[in-house]
Amino acid sequence: AEAAAEQLQLYRRDPEGWRGCRSTGEVAVSWRPSSEFAGNLYKGEGILPASPQNVWECIKPVAGGLRTKWDQNVKDFEVIEVISDTVSVCRTTTPSACMRIISPREFVDVVVMKQYEDGTMQSAATNVEHPLCPPQPNLVRGFNYPCGCFCIPVPG
Fold first, then answer.
1. Which positions are tagged coiled coil (predicted)?
2. In this structure, what CATH number is given to the domain that contains residue 131?
3. From the CB of residue 53, how many other CB atoms can be counted at a distance below 10 Å?
4. pLDDT surpassing 90 at residue 35
5. Which residues have a Cβ under 8 Å from the Cβ of 134 and sit 6 or more positions away?
């Protein structure tokens, strides 16, 4: 989990190579080739008219959290094991997509939540296997490379 958090910090600090691919008035999505796997990294950025704490409540990876209520790509989120007050093993399930062409998925990740001195909040995760969470027969087991979210306070 700590390695995933550090990898995300490296992505955040390195502005090189990101190319814009989509932008609305609220969100900008960029991508760049990954150095870890044969594919691309993606990041979405936006400024929300809300306090960092309210935004964090909507995105933080906790059981019973708000993410399953607003994010159509997250069907369920459960904590498999609590490692510490900031680290846990979690299972996320996603619904089928593209008129059921893409099967429902499950992801088992070790997740860390951090808060930094500047008020930035971060969740970082990466794939892990866990004996209490064997693959389910009706779901495709997905694999996450280091991934996560930052909630960064901005003045005003």
1. none
2. 3.30.530.20
3. 11
4. no
5. none
Both tokens of 56, joined, read 């964090």
Q: Give the tens place of pLDDT for each residue, 39-49.
A: 999 999 999 99
Three-state secondary structure along 114-155? EECCCCCEEEEEEECCCCCCCCCCCCEECCCCCEEEEECCCC
With a cut of 90, say whether residue 15 has pLDDT above it: no
Q: Which domain covers residue 142, as residue numbers? A: 1-151
In a domain, residue 119? The reply is yes
**How many distinct structural domains can be found in the chain?**
1
Contact 90, 108 (CB under 8 A): yes
Q: Which residues on adjacent β-strands are paired with residue 31?
A: 19, 42
Confirm whether 156 is domain-assigned: no
Q: Is residue 47 part of a domain?
A: yes
**77 vs 12: CA distance, rounded Å:** 26
Count of CB atoms situated within 10 Å of the CB of 122: 20
Q: Is 141 within a domain?
A: yes
